[in-house]
Amino acid sequence: MTVSNGTVNQKQEETSSQILFYLNGSRVVIKKPDLDQTLLQYLRTTAGLTGTKLGCGEGGCGACTVMVSRYDTVEQRIVHASVNACLCPLYTVDGKHVITVEGLGTAKNPHAVQQRIALLHGSQCGFCTPGFVMSLYTLLRNNPNPTEHDVEECFDGNLCRCTGYRPILDAAKTFAEQAWKAGTTVNADGTATVRAKDSDGAAGCGVEGCCQLKESSKADDAGCCGARGADGGCCKDNKQSSDNANGADAETQSVIARFKKYDASSELIFPPFLIRYAKGTTALDGSEPHRRTLAITSNSSASWCQQFFRPLTLDKLLQLLAEHPDAKMVAGNSEVGVEMRLKRSRFPVQIFVNDVAELQHVRASESEVVFGANISLERFGRELAALVEEHGSERTQTFAALRDNLRFFAGRQIRNVATLAGNIATASPISDLNPVLMAAGASVELAAAGGERRRVAMTEMFTGYRRTAMRAGEVIVGVAVPFSVPGERMRAFKQAKRRDDDIAIVTCGLRVRVDAQGRVADASFAFGGMAPTTVLARQAMEVATADGGAVWSDQAVLTKLLDAVQAELRLDYTVPGGMAEYRAALAGSFMLKFWALTQTDSAALAAAGLHADEMDDGLGAPHEGRAVCRGRQEYATVSERAIVGKGVAHASALQQATGEARYVDDMPPTRGELHMALVPSAHAHARILEIDASEALAMPGVRRVLTAADVPGENTWNIFEDEEILPTTHVHYAGQPVALVVAESLRAAQDAVQAVRVSYEALPAVLTVRDAVAQGSLFAEERVLRNGDVDTALEAAPHVLSGESYCGAQEHFYLETMGALAVPRGEADELDVFASTQNPTETQMVCAAALGVPANRVVCRVKRMGGGFGGKESRSVLLATFAALGAHHTGHAVRAMLDRDDDMRTSGQRHPFLGRWTVGFDDAGRLLALRMHVFSNGGFSHDLSVGVLERAVSHVDNCYRLGASEIVGRIARTNTQSNTAFRGFGGCQGMFLLESMLCEVAEAVGRTPEQLRALNMYRAGDVTPFAQRLNDWNVPLLWERLSASSAFAERRAAVDAYNASSRHRKRGLAMLPTKFGISFGVKFLNQGMALVHVYTDGSVLVAHGGTEMGQGLHTKMTQVAAETLGVPLSSVFISETATNTAANTSPTAASASSDLNGFAVHNACAVLAERLRPYRERAPDASFAQVARTAYLDRVSLTAAGHYATPDIGFDWQRGTGQLYFYFTQGAAVAEVELDTLTGAHTTRRVDILMDVGKSLNKALDIGQIEGAFTQGQGWTTTEEFLYFPRGPLFTQGPGNYKIPSAMDIPRDFRVALLEGLPYDSLKTIYSSKGIGEPPLFLGASVFFALRDAVLAARRQQGVDAPLHIESPATPEILRMACVDQIVDRVAIPAAQKEGKIPFAVRI
User: Which of 113, 140, 492, 1401 has the greatest number of beta carbons closer than 10 A?
Assistant: First the structure.
């Protein structure tokens, strides 16, 4: 434990208005910095370092991660910390060294971290990649020899939406000590040392599976290993000794063999000057700057912060507080920064307190430890771990509870800067730490100017919502936490929507002291999330201590405790935050866990029917702890083609990993460039009475406020022309843009938005699909598939069951939000629109129509997107049009980039679906008849909802014979954003409705869902409800092979045995098939085009109609071109997708882009290859460059256009005739989960996936698509809950309350294989490949159905016979409340008490 003093030199008492720091090794001095500017804004706009990305602006995604290093004068060491630059005020980096992704390496000379993540497929869209790179880099700077567990944990503050995390983790774990196999170790400085010989006399080279470790008769010295590899080669050559070798392993080892070794000694050093600067020992003669108290006054009256102070001593801090009693103290800025951005809170005077060394000491006495108020939570965790190690568990029960609690406190980037005092002073009612500190009997030390000091017990600290007992001018200087005494036991518990980096739903600290006779001598039970403040459950405490102390092992005491907790902590149905019953159930569940975990009498546990090992880790983890993720990928080695099929890395992966890849907002500003912000509607449905922009227009820097009257051309758009670009008379959802502000800076535009006055007349609104159906709020379109006489079949069926299935919305959460930059060319109405869009052609056409100019004057350009997933197929068009309008009216370039909350409010989501069904079946569960009415929530306009509905209706059958069937689909009109395309495009929703129904049928006949799936599965040659014969039908084979390879039968028996012996933890197992039709539903969209240029130096430039959003489309297209032309892959390049080189393109969607554009590229290249064939034949030894130049000199065109139209397809929904899909991509998955029935928390233990992707164009990229899609599907059906406030505004507006899966949510054992070696008699695609982007997503629902299986086991144990109905997503709340037990019964709110009350939030 460090107790040394920091040095504060007298010269530090002077004040300064400049900050000094180092950036990637170079000194930066800023005089009077912008007090409102974050480090991220400085890096991107001032320093021009755009590799650091803005993903959310609230520290919840990690895209903005940088490393900030400082010299800690208390610990007397250099500290490297990963930090969210979006929350880091620029003024806080004084005296620090900031390293960004650009400071590590370049694409031509990457850092080892960048290289490994890129080459091992850890970067798809690439927007999150710099953040992952910097988190891993920081870990290695602190610990060059980490464990695999360390590696995984370092990413708990980083999100990725593309990869499914597995390849990132695998790449990162090559730095872990376990990865250096067979005689190779990593030294303290990060370099590798090869041991001379292992125990068998062989040495290793550092590559896993090194052939030096294999017996060999070869004696020559070829290669790194003396030719001990196969065929006498080196292990790094990866020559396969078997035709059946796993191509995935071979390709991975080939990549690993090219890795740079990590050498920590070559890293950028921490500038020695900054050590002297921090210590206050810089030269006194004025030759060196020295550290001073900062006192800065803003130059602008519009600044949100007008005065800023950074004291270096406690006395100075107290003096400043006395002078500015209303000042806002800032430490980690994790709370203040979010309030300023999301709530637009203003704090005119701010005092940064993290550089006061006196607040960072840790002092231990015999009875307590006083932690300095401003130690970071990361250091707090280290100190706690050291205390537990030093003093043993008996004296450190509280410290251990706090340590465990911190494991899941926010993300690492937040813990690195957030402080202990900051967590207390914010007085959050859902604080993770405050209940533990309160129950422990901790107290805070307060100080004020004049030397006054006092202690306040944590039990007295919170006086109301977000209010504390601190007086004006007081500051927390320390937190005193007592050592535990004999007989004392303590635990901390927390439950959140997602285990990592999430705020608590309920949290608590529970402590009891039991005397030698087993009676309770003292008890303290503190809860968060159950009241406006952290509260003590005093009734339960009285139960424990009454009558001289209850006998703690007495089961009757447990019953009384549960009764007391439920009585005291009961919540009203309308409670802020919602989930009233669940939160009350958690309080009881935590008390039950605590009682069981603190028992020393095993007989007492047995009498209560409890098992302590099932209760361990009350923070929501499985009792065995968090296992390290393991993955395995299997596919055959490609031998029949030179390039196509090989698992080459994403073409832009290195640029993405080094921060060089440019996205829309990374483009340098043009001269006079302006910024745009949107004026949102305050109502879900209202008549616009007046828009008054006069106040906004008078604000400095504001150029224009645009309304519908300013649209010079067409003000309607989308396929059905039923949506206005800007509303004229009515708004139809809360957040709908009603006006656009154009200003000289983004801040000016956003400030002006608040000054635009809009008067409304509110109108009734409808939000949910059920309400819309009940009110008849439906669009006119209907889609119907009828086969056979359903009424007769239902009458004849031995069993008939009716019910509902439901699946909710899902936010795309692409890491790069919607963005566009419109740049006028200054003549002839020409306009370049740089957009993050999947649909350049529609962007071009709508912009042109809105401006009233021909389409040939507008060029839409797309370099790449930071994710799309369908969300940028149509809704992105609107923002690009807004930017175009701004550019048209101002004559300047206009940049429009949405903040995360604006994006989520306006962009549309996956359609929620409701299915109402009646099904007939026999005793075995064979389906005989089905009538299903399908309703989607389309939002306020059509957008793509008809297409989504058609795919849903045509995928209800999934892989099964339905018997006589009638499937009717309608679209509900609601007052939400217009819901839109999302990976799966309705297909996964249709399949989910049917699979949910099938589970209920299985219950009814007493069989498993898997038995019914196999029983009802299509066979080859069967015909679907849309009259399409199933050719190349491989699902039965997939089912059979996966059942065997996953050991499904054996694991089913093991799961059942586990559940029979475990009361409060249940495992579930599910096996799920899928078929996904590939083609656009609209026939004319099934075409692709390409333009290919061959240059005389032999290089090839390809343009095609598809866009790159991370799926690797450009990479595949370059492979097709190189294969067709017979040139190296390195010779082919794709620059961008633009409407002046690829005109009239279809959107990149429907998983058809490789098919459409691949054939178009192939056709163009085939023309060129044929033109060049005579020249190659004449000079067979000539290089391609020589051949191209010869042909050019012979006046042969080296440019060719290619076109492709999908044959055979075209379905008539009115007649029910034609071919709807060109083919089906097929697959199956097995998921195994473990569920904590007391909290609803779960872990996905293992997933096995087997996919039929035809003959893949790039097997490694396809594996990545499978894993990424699966993870999205898992999130859709588990953690991703989309909520609205009842009056219409969106509640889930960012990562703070919308939870996509994190790296720790993916399967702990993740196995993916491709089905290969089959003939495809009917497949007519490019190289017989199949689309893969969307099909695997539904397999993620296997986790949902495995959880359902676990819940069924829990209910059966409790004797609950009622049919189980669970809707998606299966959040912890849904799962816990479905596990009916006495606690759930206790907390149930009677229906009469809910009648007429408005809930806090509405599930959409």
Answer: 492
| CA 1366 – CA 1370 distance, rounded (Å) | 7
Q: Is there a contact between 71 and 22 (Cβ–Cβ < 8 Å)? A: no
Residue 302: per-residue pLDDT: 83
Token digits of residue 125? 């869209």
CA end-to-end distance (rounded Å), the chain: 51
Tally the C-alpha atoms within 13 A of residue 1298's C-alpha that lie toward its C-beta: 25
Query: Which residue reads 């637009």 in tokens?
Result: 344
Active site residue 950: no
Task: Note whether 1262 and 1274 are within 8 A (CB).
Answer: no
Cα–Cα distance measured from residue 169 to residue 929, given in angstroms and rounded to the nearest whole number: 47
Predicted local distance difference test score (pLDDT) of residue 1155: 98
Q: How far apart are CA 795 and CA 483, in angstroms?
A: 73
CA angle 1199, 1200, 1205 (to 5 degrees): 160
What sign does the CA torsion over 923, 924, 926, 932 have? positive
559-568 b/e with 16+ CB inside 10 Å = b?
ebbbebbbeb
pLDDT at 178: 57
Give the pLDDT confidence of 138-175 residue by residue, as tens digits.
999 999 999 999 999 999 999 999 999 999 999 999 99
Spans in the chain with pLDDT lower than 50: 1-12, 180-233, 235-243, 618-624
Give the per-residue SS3 of 91-113: HHHCCCEEECHHHCCCCCCCCHH
Whole-number pLDDT of residue 13: 60
| Cβ atoms within 10 Å, residue 262 | 23
The helix or strand, by DSSP H or E, that contains position 751, with its residue range, turns out to be helix 746-753
Q: Tell me, what DSSP letter sits at residue 741?
A: E
Phi first, then psi, for residue 910 (nearest 5°) are -65, 140
Give the torsion through C-alpha atoms of 265, 268, 272, 273, to 10 deg: 180
Q: Round the CA-based radius of gyration of the chain to a whole number and report it.
A: 32
Instruction: Supply the pLDDT for residue 127.
Output: 98
**CA 148 to chain centroid:** 21
The answer to whether the CB of 907 falls within 8 A of the CB of 977 is yes
Q: Which phi and psi (to 5°) does residue 650 adopt?
A: -50, 135
Collapse the DSSP code of 1052 into the 3-class scheme (helix H, G, I; strand E, B; otherwise coil) and give the result.
helix
E strand residue ranges, 770-912: 778-787, 799-807, 819-824, 831-835, 858-862, 894-897
3-state SS record for 1145-1213: CCCCCCCCHHHHHHHHHHHHHHHHHHHHHHHHHHCCCCCHHHHHHHHHHCCCCCEEEEEEECCCCEEEC
Angle at 791 between CA 788 and CA 796, to 5 degrees: 95
List the one residue out of 825, 1006, 984 whose CA is nearest residue 922.
Answer: 1006
Helices marked H in 672-714? 694-697
Tell me how far apart the alpha carbons of residues 433 and 371 are, in angstroms, rounded to a whole number: 14
CA distance 457 to 533: 15
Q: Is 1252 exposed, middle or buried (0-12, 13-18, 19+ CB in 10 A)?
A: buried
CA nearest neighbour of 857 among 1139, 1109, 558: 1139
Q: Which residue among 660, 816, 1334, 1373 is the active-site one?
A: 1334
Planar angle of CA 44, 49, 53, nearest 5 degrees: 60
